[in-house]
């Protein structure tokens, strides 16, 4: 299979045999959405798995970002990172909020707490960091800044499903955290997402917001949107939850194999495990130092492509480079030197449960043969 295409990711699918009885049950119940049986079951199961008290399911991972900002009544300016998937900043835009980009830390690729205070103005109301690649932000330092200036903190935890720090869920940090269950993520419900909060009243408000603002048959308490997760994907999600630990274990093996092979190669940097962290191995980014390695990032990226190995330049370009945002003062590359450098040197290697040892050998060989 010389020419087999190795994709950067592949979805975790439940067995069809297991899924069919769930579908038959849903057909019998004739209740397809609006907080149905499987929706309630999945919320409960996810609370247990993720070790959080309150979770609200959504139809994707972007609406919880938009609704978190609504639920907390965020306005004005929000401090965020340019090194993420565009949805993080788009959620601010959809709320009429001005994003203020702050540079990242070169080791973790997460927002650099040392640079947050200088970006705070009288209009700042919140900080929206991202646990990039599922690696925890410096949540205590970010919280200390938020407390000092009276700001809310909303974490985009789309990459951080199941990540724990010293036995605690990373989702317990900040005021709220959002998850994505998109097909390409560690845990998926085809499309899907969730918003995690810390008290019952807030959970209620979020549930109104995701259902047009309905708090009763004829009562609308807020101008809500439709963000509801349906029964079919909830049932699918219950099944995928049963195999996510095995999937994460398989990803860990692949990460260990990559690290073992890559440590011999000059000019290629990768990320190690952090102490006290339960990682989910959602991505495997490598950073190319063109001088030491002998090839640029793009040269390696296209060479891999020629050999049918589809890496992804995540996250390149930076969000701040897109036309909607590039006019902002904080979007200047001079304000974001580290993020610019990381975006210019990163390739995410293929990473998914089902990637074979032959695949990883082929990928490592390709990177090993410079030029
Ligand atoms: C995937 C992702 C999202 C959006 O999730 P969808 O489920 O695709 O809407 C948001 N933020 C980050 C960082 C993501 O990677």
Instruction: Report the end-to-end length measured between terminal Cα atoms.
Output: 24 Å
Cofactors and ligands: pyridoxal-5'-phosphate
CATH architecture of the largest domain: 3-Layer(aba) Sandwich
SS summary, helix count: 11
The count of DSSP E runs of length 2 or more, i.e. the number of strands, is: 15
Number of domains: 2
Mean pLDDT: 97
Helix proportion range: 25-40%
Q: Helix and strand string, N-terminal first?
A: HHEHEHEEHEEEEEHEEHEEEHHHEH
Per the CATH scheme, the topology name of the largest domain is Aspartate Aminotransferase, domain 2
Structural class: alpha/beta
CATH superfamily of the largest domain: Type I PLP-dependent aspartate aminotransferase-like (Major domain)
Question: What general outline do the C-alpha atoms trace?
Answer: globular
Strand percentage: 15-25%
State the CATH class of the largest domain. Alpha Beta
Family: Belongs to the DegT/DnrJ/EryC1 family.
GO biological process, one term: polysaccharide biosynthetic process
Protein name: dTDP-4-amino-4,6-dideoxygalactose transaminase
GO molecular function: pyridoxal phosphate binding; transaminase activity
Features:
about 375 residues; alpha/beta; seven-stranded mixed sheet; three-stranded antiparallel sheet; globular; pyridoxal phosphate; pyridoxal phosphate binding; PyrdxlP-dep_Trfase; DegT/StrS_aminotransferase; dTDP-4-amino-4,6-dideoxygalactose transaminase
């Amino acid at each position: 299979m010389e020419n087999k295409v190795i994709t950067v990711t592949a979805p975790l699918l439940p067995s069809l045999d297991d899924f069919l009885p769930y579908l038959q049950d849903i057909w019998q119940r004739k209740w397809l959405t609006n907080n149905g049986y499987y929706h309630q079951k999945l919320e409960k199961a996810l609370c247990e798995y993720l070790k959080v008290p309150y979770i609200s399911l959504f139809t994707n991972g972007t609406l919880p970002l938009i609704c978190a900002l609504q639920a907390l009544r965020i306005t004005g300016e929000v401090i965020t990172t340019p090194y993420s998937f565009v949805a993080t900043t788009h959620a601010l835009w959809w709320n009429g909020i001005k994003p203020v980009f702050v540079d990242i830390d070169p080791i973790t690729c997460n927002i650099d707490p040392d640079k947050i205070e200088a970006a705070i103005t009288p209009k700042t109301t919140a900080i929206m960091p991202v646990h990039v690649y599922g690696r925890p932000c410096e949540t205590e330092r970010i919280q200390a800044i938020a407390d000092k200036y009276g700001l809310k903190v909303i974490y985009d935890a789309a990459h951080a499903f199941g990540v724990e720090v010293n036995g605690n869920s990373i989702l317990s940090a900040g005021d709220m955290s959002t998850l994505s269950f998109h097909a390409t993520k560690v845990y998926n419900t085809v499309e899907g997402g969730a918003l995690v909060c810390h008290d019952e009243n807030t959970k209620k408000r979020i549930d109104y917001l995701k259902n047009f603002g309905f708090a009763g048959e004829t009562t609308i308490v807020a101008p809500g949107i439709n963000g509801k997760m349906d029964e079919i994907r909830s049932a699918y999600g219950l099944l995928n939850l049963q195999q996510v630990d095995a999937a994460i274990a398989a990803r860990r093996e692949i990460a260990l194999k990559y690290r073992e092979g890559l440590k011999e190669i000059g000019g290629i940097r990768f990320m190690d495990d952090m102490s006290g962290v339960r990682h989910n191995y959602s991505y495997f980014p490598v950073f190319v130092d063109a001088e030491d390695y002998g090839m640029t990032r793009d040269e390696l990226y296209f060479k891999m492509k020629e050999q049918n190995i589809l890496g992804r330049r995540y996250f390149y370009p930076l969000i701040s480079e897109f036309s909607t945002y590039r006019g902002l003062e904080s979007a200047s590359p001079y304000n974001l030197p580290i993020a610019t450098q990381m975006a210019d040197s990163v390739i995410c290697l293929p990473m998914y449960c089902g990637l074979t040892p032959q695949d990883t050998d082929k990928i490592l060989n390709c990177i090993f043969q410079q030029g």
